[in-house]
Amino acid sequence: MPLLGGIRPPIAVLCVLVLALAGLTVKVLGPGKEAAAPKAVLSSQQYFAEDGAIALRASVDERVADLERTAAALSEGPSVKPGRVLSDLSRAYQKWTGTTVLDLESGDVVAARGETIPLAWLDKDVLTGGRALKPRMVRLETGDVRLMTMAVLDWRDRPQQLLIASSSLSVPAINLGPFRSMAVVTEKGEVLATAGFDRAEALDSEQERKELAFLHKEMSRLAGIAAERTEQHPVSAKEPGSRGYPGVSGSLVGDAYNGRVSTAGYASLASSDPEGKKSVAAGLGLTVVALLPVVEQQASDQGRELYGLAAAGVLVLLGLLAAAVLWATVQRPLLRLFLESRRLARGDLTRPVTVPRRGEAARIGAALERLRRRLAHGDDGAGSAGAPRRRIRIGGRGPLLLTGALLLVWCVPVGLLLNRTDGSVSIPATMVDDQRDRTDLIADRLRRALNEAQADLVSTSHLIGSADAGAADRVLEEALVKHSRYRALYVVDADGRVGARAGADPHDWNRDEDLPLVRVSGKGGKVPVIQAGAPVKAAKGEEGGTLVGEIRVEFLNSLLTRPGLGEVRVVDSEGLTLASSGGFLAFEELPRETLTDLVRAGGMRVGAGPVENGLLIREGKGVTVAAAAPFSGGGVTADIGWTVVSWQDAKRFQIAAYEREDRSVLAGMLGLAAIILSLGWIHLVVVRPLRALATSAENLADGDLKTVLYPRYQDEVGAVVRSLELLRQQAQAHRHNQARRSAEPRPDGR
Q1: In the structure, what pLDDT confidence band is assigned to residue 381 with cuts at 50, 70 and 90?
Q2: Distance from the CA of 376 to the CA of which of 20, 437, 637, 689 falls in 20 to 30 A?
Q3: Would you state the pLDDT for residue 277?
Q4: Residue 611 backbone phi and psi in degrees, to 5
Q5: With contact defined as beta carbons under 8 Å apart, do 281 and 57 qualify?
């Protein structure tokens, strides 16, 4: 029967979907592809490299900002001898290996300190044009590469001078753990600096020395590959930065040695930061590579071939059974009705109609038989008008429900019961170590940002000390525009009164000398008030005030947002929340007592100070990886008592056990989608029109010859409707003929 619609296509589609799902089941529930290292470990190395790139970018940008801030502060005051400039600079910052002051008018070196800075690289392009005074990488005679940072000293009573500071492009001072190493690589693949390989002197055995040499070789080889890949644009790269990282990043798998395979993550220096400022470090073309040898993963999916085949076989069996049910209860009776109705419409009224046993097809078949008898025996329908109708509540929906139940027998166990995990899932120790080390890196990044904020206030306070009230307001407004980390800037005098101000409404500042320069207030309010202060030098005989900057909580939140760490919070010494990567209430407690205990343990002093801690929490059927890193290091925030704590559900890791569970859920959901698609299709194009057709056929059999039947579908149901319309017309013509014969006079005159 040349019919394109109807019952056949959805049943065929159901069979095709079942077979396709069976093939997918063999693939996803069978053995996975053997990898040398888990995907979770590779993703973690990528995140670690991104964190290192962010730290290096911040370090380079901080050097540039410090030098520019110092030069601007010096230029605003009275002229200072070049030697004094370098002396004060070395006392304030210990980040430069050498400094030089160059007279721009004569080209002579007027002061130098530290290592000798070569000047052959200085040309017109360095001082003019679009890249004027931008940092440059310069190779020394010793072969080492230095980053040259420049700023102009501009006094009114002397010619302009160029302040040059040289610093090494070293790996950021972050915790790498016991086995990880990190390198800074140029765009040509040259390794400029490394960290983590400094344990060579502590190696006792020849085997350990060979392994270290192997790692050196791997770092050089993988660094070249990483530099080549990071030359791509982030938009067109196959491996763009993870979840919003503006640079190019990815992971690599190297060779194996002594049962351990080298894994590496790489990331190019991105061009933006949380404050929205353009980064000068991004133009250097540098890439950070993090290398970590991990134990080579052993295949744990042996014997799962039959596992996937068995699940697929059960699905095929149930799918064939479901198709057979639809064929026997829906397709076959409908095709039989089509043939019977067409036979009657052609005038073959001798053979009784074969009536199906159940459903709407039975109602239509019974109506066809009544119509046949009326047309064949001349019955006008009076005797059959009162015949009882076959009322069936379920009708054609019953086979659909049975078919759906058969397929759900496979979908529900596979999606909800198969490959389920619990709290005993094995989590690689590398994931716990990475959570700890990355949390410590976030803590160091946050500490440096707060130290830099306070240093900006110190620099601004020098400009305010010698300015009048109006000029002080302008200085604060300019500083607020330049540094979006502040929500308000204001000067507080000795009596606590606010003088010059810019930004939002100020809060009270406690001048207690025992309090740190960076502090928190506003407890009990909706938002923590984080303040940083710097003393303002006043004229002789006057008492100086304090320049206070209120740091936006949103700025701190942006520093905490990193992929692969879960939820990250900053808590004070009492464990109360000050900032978070997600939503939080001001000064709320941590959601778990275990996390509070972890923060207390991290705050305990061990040796020189507090240390970071990592923890694997198993509660019920869930597994959580958590870490806490207290503030440590230098600066005004070293002893502030804050701790960065992070935690995430281990189900986010790309571990084989969780991947099998996800694949099982996916298979069950795909099976459910196939059920809804196929059975919904059959219900819309067959069952629902068939129910309406059954009512029309029974009305026609009861004697309703006035209602015209219009076929709406070009399928089996539409064909039956057309046949019924022909039968209606025949019955109507038959009734008219009978009425006309009754009205004609008979030959005997009666």
Answers
A1: very low
A2: 689
A3: 59
A4: -130, 160
A5: yes
Pull the structure tokens for residue 128.
């003019």
Exposed/middle/buried for residue 684 (C-beta within 10 Å: 0-12, 13-18, 19+): exposed
Q: How far apart are CA 174 and CA 445, in angstroms?
A: 9
Q: Residue length, the chain?
A: 750
Strand pairing category for 136-139 and 567-571: unpaired
Neighbours of 50 (CB within 10 A): 28
Taking Cα atoms as reference points, which of 629, 620, 638, 556 lies closest to residue 595? 629
Three-state DSSP string of 96-148: CCEEEEEECCCCCEEEEEECCCCCCCCCHHHHCCCCCCCCEEEECCCCCEEEE
Convert the pLDDT of each residue in 121-155 to its tens digit. Answer: 888 777 777 677 888 888 887 778 888 888 888 88
- Retrieve residue 740's tokens: 């006309």
Assign residue 270 a region (left: φ > 0; alpha: ψ between -120 and 50; beta: otherwise).
beta
DSSP label at 746?
A: P
First to last CA, the chain: 54
On whether the CB atoms of residues 601 and 615 are closer than 8 A, the answer is no
pLDDT digits (tens, 9 = 90+) for 596-608: 888 888 777 665 5
- What is the torsional sign of CA 479, 485, 489, 494? negative
Does residue 62 surpass a pLDDT of 70?
Answer: yes
If you average pLDDT over residues 304-333, what whole number do you get? 86
Cα 56 to chain centroid, rounded = 23
Q: Considering the entire predicted model, what is its pTM?
A: 0.75
Q: Work out the pLDDT band at 176, boundaries 50, 70, 90.
A: confident
Residue 395: left if φ>0, alpha if ψ -120 to 50, beta else—which one?
left
**DSSP states of 271-289 as a string?**
S--TT-PPPSGGGG--EEE
d(CA 22, CA 24): 5
What was the pLDDT predicted at 610? 65
Within 10 angstroms of residue 128's Cβ, the number of other Cβ atoms is 10
Distance CA 352, CA 369 (A): 7
Q: In what order do the strands lie in the sheet with 622-630?
A: 577-580, 567-571, 643-649, 622-630, 613-619
What radius of gyration, in Å, describes the C-alpha atoms of the chain? 41
Q: What token pair was written down for 329? A: 């209860």
Residues 271, 230: Cα–Cα separation, whole Å: 13
Q: Which helix (H) or strand (E) holds 621?
A: none
CA-to-CA distance for 616 and 650, rounded, in angstroms?
9
Is 392 strand, coil or helix? coil
- Do residues 383 and 370 lie in contact, with contact meaning Cβ atoms separated by under 8 Å? no
Tens-place pLDDT, residues 185-233: 888 888 888 887 765 445 566 777 788 888 888 899 999 999 888 887 6
Structure tokens at 313: 């076989």
Question: What pLDDT score does 746 carry?
Answer: 58
As a whole number of angstroms, the distance between CA 53 and CA 288 comes to 6
